[in-house]
């Protein structure tokens, strides 16, 4: 016998094709439960999309430790070679809305949830090792400038570059974004980075500053501007299709995971601020150390339930891993769970994709919209004499020394700090052909800016990074602007 269609409360539905009417040809009856419930539920299918990174794709898999890192962290999921931990990874674009295109020039999100035996560890990174800004107070303005204009309703090159013309610290990330890696061919063919500096603490209490690198084993593949425009025209969902189909075919994407480790005592005198998110740590100073392998091998069963409702928060740490004083990271420690409470509700941590899997959540938080109250009859206050869950008295990470006065401070500058030298180094690392494409991409974008003063403010940044970079870009921008005026 075929399955019976039921209402939400489980009663059989007699007719799912014809709504009930008062007589043949008469008005529709409100007593038709199936009709009313169906229309009402349909109206409520959408939830707020993420304010950034709205468009994304997710998959499950595992992380396996391949190299011993126990001298550096006491994180349980990293405590022995061969240990595997289940993960969920969501890739995303940043600026576009849920219904935008995959193959666009934009950083890509690389948000990873490790379901460890000591709770979920979220590493919410990007496919770029650096970012545009270094203070969280700037984030809403920066994002507004990159998304749709309130009046025209579309992204405006003038807004994008107007903001950047007041943000010299963006130049390194801009150089990265307009270079070859700015449009990945797929989510499988790009690296991931934790981007921020984090803290690892070993069992003996030794603390390290750490940066994460996920190197794609599929090889880096990118699209140039022409290929991307063509692909977007053919398939808005190219990255989603590629990831989903690869996993369905049994072609499981993987990444080799490395860290850079800096003993905490070296941070104070490092030649630039090691907590500055606009800079990388040169590998010559802090070489990559292999940690493990990340493999994605299972598609979600339901995109809405598991991808749209996935909630990653940079403040979900596990013992042995903690934050650094990077101001951007500190801002993010607040922003994400707050966004989740708005977007998904206070009980988003009880949704299957977000709940711990290798352990259970045990605390005294209760109730709220959508609660399934897994704690049942257990007492809802602490301390109590009913053998309820207790604190461990063991800090997750190591304390950080602070000094000085409260107040709005710019990031601490070290001897070599400026906003341009690493953008120049990245430019000089590129082959001649890559430099040509970078200049063409940048000139195309800056050349479409209408306001002269914006162009005049932004070009000096490129000159400051590298004389050749500045000279060539200036000439290319002027050629485009002169041709437009002719
Ligand atoms: C102060 C700076 C930042 C703020 C305030 C911020 C805030 C947010 C917010 C509110 C969301 C939406 C969360 C949700 O609704 O689930 C989000 C998503 C995301 N952000 Fe940030 N962000 C910042 C910087 C960064 C940086 C530096 C990175 C990468 C290194 C990053 C990576 C991501 C990723 C990957 C997502 C998507 C997570 C997912 O797949 O659900 N963000 N951000």
TrEMBL record:
Residues 6-390 form the Catalase core domain. Residues 370-391 are annotated as: Disordered. Its EC number is 1.11.1.6. It catalyses: 2 H2O2 = O2 + 2 H2O. Keywords: Heme, Hydrogen peroxide, Iron, Metal-binding, Oxidoreductase, Peroxidase. It comes from the Bacteria. CDD domains: catalase_clade_3. It holds the Pfam family Catalase. PROSITE patterns: CATALASE_1, CATALASE_2, CATALASE_3. Belongs to the catalase family. This is Catalase.
